[in-house]
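Quick log. Single chain, no ligands specified.
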Amino acid sequence: MDDDELQARLKAYEGRPAAVSGTGRDPVNAPMIRHWCEAMGDRHPAYTGPDAIAPPTMLQAWTMGGLGGHAGGRAGAYDELLGLLDGAGCTAVVATDCEQEYVRPLRPGDEVTFDSVIESVSGRKTTKLGTGYFVTTRTDVRVAGELAGTHRFRILKYAPTRREPRERRPRPVVNRDNAGFWEGVREHRLLIQRCTACAALRFPWLPGCGTCGAPGWDTVEASGEGTVFSYVVVHHPPFPAFAEPDHAAGPAGPYGVALIELAEGVRIVSNVVGMPCDRIRIGMPVRLDFRRYDEELVLPVFQGVAA
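-> predicted structure:
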């Protein structure tokens, strides 16, 4: 099929349903709100107490089916569209962005229903990942028939670009707000900002205190002790530049990305190295290390600590 025919077939899916009469697996509830706020580090008082509301950004969370799927059916049109793109060689997928509109707050006890529609399919686009098509779905979330919010979710279905393995890791973005942090890393020191007005520690580095708003700060050096707060293991697509040189899976093997809670109470995203990825666990103690990846780049990483 040529490009014009494929584009015409893709455009025919616009306006067709992606999910019909979906029902949230659980009512809006306080435990999920608490878990969300703890993961995000959000202590806003509106999300606790007898008059609590759910954080607006949780809008999509109440519609997700998890491993068990949705109570409402997913429409066949969306699967057909993805299958058509697969057949055209666009076998890879990546989520690109989402947009949310909030109409009314969600409160514990609300029963959520939703309908999704395939809002748009782009023309053929060429990106660094490969050539493909952006697919946007719009989900209207309701409570007792009343619109609570709208969630637009966009993916790129693409044919991966074949390229030579990149030997060098991407360079960090260094600016006037974080230059001191990277200077410390070059000296094998992990520096945490400390507000000089209220002594609150903060990471990543910011121009002002998120607790009291004061602009003044100094630094404290992290002890290097921490635990894995959360993690993911990246299997695909393979990025040889991120693989550990001693990894048994070879130069394009998986690698662990973890949210490390430092002993000082702040969290940092880094790699867990020196161990198979399937041994990484939440709560596992880790210790700071510094690794030189090329003549320019030194990064803070974390080694698992034997029990």
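Residues 76-87 form the longest helix (12 residues).
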